[in-house]
Amino acid sequence: MSPAHWSAHLHPVPGPDLCCLVPDPVAQGLWHRVVKAIDKANGTIDTIGWVTVSGEETRAQLREAADLIERAGAILERTSVREKPLSDEMYQLAPREIDSY
Questions:
Q1: 8-16 contacts: CB < 8 A, separation 24 or more?
Q2: pLDDT, tens digit (0-9, with 9 covering 90-100), for 58-101
Q3: Rounded CA gap, 53 and 75, in Å?
Q4: CA-CA distance, 16 to 35, in Å (whole number)?
Q5: How many CB atoms lie within 10 A of CB 94?
Q6: What is the DSSP letter of 54?
Q7: Rounded distance, CA 49 to CA 71, Å?
Q8: Who has the most CB within 10 Å: 7, 58, 62, 86?
């Protein structure tokens, strides 16, 4: 992880903890937006009967949805690979701050 990446997220604070999170409200809002979109997609797919799906239009829409979800999954995987080491390190350094979010 590059020092520039770390410095964008961390700053020293007085007290028992060595550092704390510097919240990024825009990124946190986008994280919530992604979660809501995933929840909506999960809820919607549950209303489509697997046994009864048929037809060219349905196949095309399901194919398009699968392609989009696979692309979104790949994007989220790249984000996770970049963010997970920071999250793990922050939890070790300041578990009180992490647990409070």
A1: 9/86, 9/90, 10/90
A2: 999 999 999 999 999 999 999 999 888 877 777 777 665 555 54
A3: 29
A4: 33
A5: 20
A6: -
A7: 24
A8: 86
Q: How many CA atoms, within 13 angstroms, populate the side-chain half-sphere of residue 70?
A: 6
- In Å, what is the CA distance from 44 to each residue of 5, 40, 49, 74, 78? 37, 6, 10, 21, 26
> What are the residues whose beta carbons fall under 8 Å from the beta carbon of 74, sequence distance 6 or more?
none
Residue corresponding to tokens 């194919």: 63
What's the whole-model pTM score? 0.66
**What is the amino acid identity at position 84?**
K
Place of tokens 């095309």: 60
Q: Report the C-alpha gap between 95 and 84 in whole angstroms.
A: 15
State how far the alpha carbon of 23 is from the alpha carbons of 31, 46, 101, in Å. 12, 35, 10
Domain boundaries, the chain: 70-101
| DSSP β-bridge partners for residue 21 | 10
